[in-house]
Queue: 3 jobs
Job 1
Amino acid sequence: MTAVFGDRLFTATDLNRDSRRVLDAACQGPVTITRHDQHFALMQRDRAAALVRMQEAASRAVEALIHARRILRQDPADPPASLHWLRHADHDDIQNFIDELLDTFTSVAGGYADPSRIDDVLYEWEESARMAMSPEVAKAYAAPAEPEPLWDPRLPMPGPVKENESA
Amino acid sequence: MTPEPFWQPPGAQGGDWTLVARNRRVNKSWRELCERAPADAVRWYEILSQAPMIKIPRRLFPMRFKQYKGAWECRVNAGDRILFVPDPTNRVVDIYYAGPHPPSPYPTP
């Protein structure tokens, strides 16, 4: 990841006397305002928001990776509720989770993907885990195949669903 | 809103996928879903008929666990899900579950 401040330095006096020049520079990228031994960052609001989103997403990714590694190492500490599914996943699935999360994080850090992709990956793994551990879903998946066309919901409803259709 | 994909993988081009219920029980639960959420049902029926293998983050995505390798999940709405196995060669969507979001198997602290 590139450094946040490249860096253009201005003094607090510059900001007072020629704020337009300082703000124009801040439009191009973050600048530093110095006052005695203090340093302040000045950047566009959108950029600051993006940095915060990136930092928050990175925190969630690292937290998930730490817990995944703990599970692989058979650490008895329980993960948070959103990652509790890791306790029920096997080695290969956890390793695949780690790989996908690291790949996504690399794309986000490189600026090739939005930070929301990390939350997407976390959500989709948690959701998949819920399905993978559901007895209802397992039963449906293993049910005998007697395929029939899926009813088209754009057609008029053929009447109430009858109980004897469940056979 | 139907997504506008800018690229489609081979075998996933839009249009003319056949949606198949794996058995009568699936069709029954699908019709119950249609009664609960008719607009969502139509929307997802059309998306799955057109592009069942175009990922939509958190809404339409491949399932991750290896026991369901090849299966996809569709989040119809907050409370309903469709689970299916797409067959790109024959352009068939084999729907094996359509119904309520299964309850969480984990104990709530």
Job 2
Amino acid sequence: MSEARYLSLVEDPPTGFRLVTTLARRELRRWPFALYTGDFAAVEARFGLLFDKLIGVIITKSTADQGGTGLDSRRLGPGLWAFVVSEALLPQLQNLVRPHLEMLESLRAAREEHRQVVTQLDRTRVDRARLAEYFATTQARSRIDIREHARWMVDALGALARLGGEVSPPSSSALVDQALALLIREPFRYRGAALVEMQGKSWRLLQDAGHRPSLENLQPLTSATVQIGRLAQVPLPATRHGAPRALVVWRPDTAADFSMVEMSFFRLFAALLSTVPASSGDPSLSPA
Amino acid sequence: MRAESFHTTTLESYAAGSELGEALAPCEPEAILLFVSIHYDFDDLLAGLDDALQQLDPRPVVFGVTGDGFLERSGNSDHGVAGLALHTGGRVRFYSATQTGATEAPFEAAARCAETIRAEAGDELRLALVLATHATDGPKAAAGVRSVLDVPLIGGLGGDDRRFQHSVVLCDGRAQQDAIGILGFAGELDFALNAASGWRPIGTMGTVDVCRGTTLERIGGQSAVRFIEDRLGTQASDLDLGIVSFAVEGDSRADEHFFLRALAGIDAERGEVTTFGAIDQGARVRVCLATVDQVLDGTNEAIAGLGEVPFEPAAALVMSCAGRKWILGDRAREETERILAHLGGPLPLIGLPSHGELGPFRQADGTYTPSYFHNVTMVIALLGSEAS
């Protein structure tokens, strides 16, 4: 406890107290204080409105009328006390008040810790509520997504089933044409689709529908189904004869990647396309 | 210019104000900017600050707002107070004014406030910091200030601890609710400003066909919801609020910059969406998204866009959307770290996690676009007062 916080408005202050000629609000509000004054009423008149906010002790000397040889105290606010001490105690006033002031300092620190804990708890509650809200929304969104994916798959398989009946005559070229065109229409609405074949070390376009995707970014020969930007590259199952082929699907300019459901469908679609002979075995499949 | 920044997370209001004043007083500030959390008795906070600055004559102009915590060069927090002290030796003069009624009549309140600043600062005005309480219509308030002041504007809307209930503007020793405040910088002020978000447009642009206030009904011949979903490639939901945003073309078509309006609500049945701040009918918009990394890329873009700063910055002031902070989560501090790293050291800096930002884009030729009201954006201002 700093000695500076033992203040006296009375000349010839008690031992350990510092004489202040002009008492500033800051000296009473910044830290717990002990203020020795000869005029309690004057202090109350000036700072009475702050008594609920002050932490300290205002000390006066008992008058002849009050008599007494010890110390009387009364509470002025949650952290503020008034002490009336006998003249005999003045030489020991600092020693007398110090434990009380140290208790008040502890009280002040405990209050601050309490504020910190309450504030952090409040914040945690708000953040938790937001998180719970987010979780609930995510759950609801996931249910919708599952339903949408199931519906999409039903629609996709339906469209695929109808394709079989539409192909007439069922030549290789017509089948590929119509199959790729299928991916451009409802329910797929992809931007473009293509069948490509590996020649040497690069892919060449065999047939396509919709917007023609750039082949520059396609992966080299790979057995994995991959997404490259807005393209899905799906290898056709290898056949005994013919060069490796792949299905390429170009999605619209949306933020969403191809879903797992779509990628699964592409693998099925690619498996069906693989039944169509490669270009080397079918002259009708000439490069575009 | 000499500057100092400091923060405290002490919650006892008078003590917090005192700590701040004690730390900033040696700078002999002519102005102190405050970004404060909502947790204080503001009379006590300002009293503590004022008492700690009692040796300064004249007392500095004190100006600030509450936000969702603060950014400061030595730390960020959800609660506490950060202050930036500016000393210019009289080269820069500071003028402050506030006006209440910002919720009901944002344009008029902003314009009246700006008129007070113009009357005091006159032609010497160089820059204005505009801060308003959270329920203020940002675009209208910005338009109100711009209708009077022909200088770059920076600032934002205040807020609270993520509850969207309270905020106050601090000015002239008072805390005011439902208010807009302006701090005018006049005289020999050097500054560099920029804004960026990191949000990336997806899909094609569309024109707002039908809207009312902050509600968008139809865009590009579609319902607003369909316009968004076509670009998302998935159904729009509440998960997109505050993240999916509209990039709105600036006033000048030659201006490549766009400002953002984040989604505030989705009405799937009516096909309408609401945004944090209105978008004009006829405006051309694109749907935007950002990942966490892209949000931080936006910080880099804001800094890099400042270009070659032709003066020695003495301080940095940042308005960064609280939504960015919530998206960034544990990485929120990286925004401040990136700024300080770019500036090459611990420059005095404070920042406001705001509920809407105000600022221009710096263009390649060093001039500024008009000062737009943004969402999910970071506005940065470097301040100094000695030409290098």
Job 3
Amino acid sequence: MVDDRTLNSLRKGVVEGVTLALVSDSEVYGRDLAARLVDLGLISSAGTMYPVLGRLREAGKVETTWEESLKGPPRRYYRLTTDGRDALESFAQGWEIISGGVRSVLDGRVNQSDVPDEGRKK
Amino acid sequence: MSMNVDDGSVERVYLDQIERAVAARDAEAAHQIRAEIAAHIAESRSDAEQRGEVTDIRDIIAEIGDPLVVAAEVPKKRYVTGPRPSSIGLFTQWDPMTYVWAVCLLIAIGSAFYFTGWALGLVMVWTSSLWTTRIKIWASALVPGVFLLAFLWFDFIFVAGYVVPVIVAVLLYFASSPVKARRRTLHG
């Protein structure tokens, strides 16, 4: 059972990067984006996506477009900017390093003998 | 799109709660996030109508989440005016609220020391972005203005020397952007 604090810390580290990845191929409708992030377990509720998008927009990584709908109000779509694409690239590289390291430890691939023991008393 | 009065008031109360909760962390972000969540609600209704479903505002609110949880995603900003209270190197790292208090104290009691504190306070006011130009002009002109009147026509040097600087200090306190931001947050 994962405790909320651990889960929130982990989410905070990756939610911006994953949001960038989700809007990287095409414009994504705001509600679909929120539903996708909730399904992935990266946000606890749809509303918590807006502060994340606000930060990304402020940093110039994501932009909002409005499209008229046949019925109802205009709809918001989100898409990646050039800066956002660079940030996504950087996130993907960082994630490779972090996830690989964590996975190797959790899978028990690193043996105790591989860990430097310079600090250990002899 | 149909919406009954009860739904409208539930939505308004919820959006007010969102705005207040976010403003407590970052006053500048509050309005934007409220607008986006209001748009989310309108889109939810419209999507449901297109599917021929009846929507309940409470279900949409449950999907969006607790205002405090939404606000917790907003990084806490101390003041809306930025981290540098003054362009003078000595003061750039000061907390804006501490800077406001220092200026107010210098202006209020500085006249007791041949107006050196008052003059230093004014220098701090003019090199800061925490006050508007209009307030800076008023703060600078009030004491000399009242002194001039006192010398020319009236005998109220005490008022000009001691009371007016205190009035100016109070004016500067309430007109400073950190205090205005705090008041906006407290009163929603």
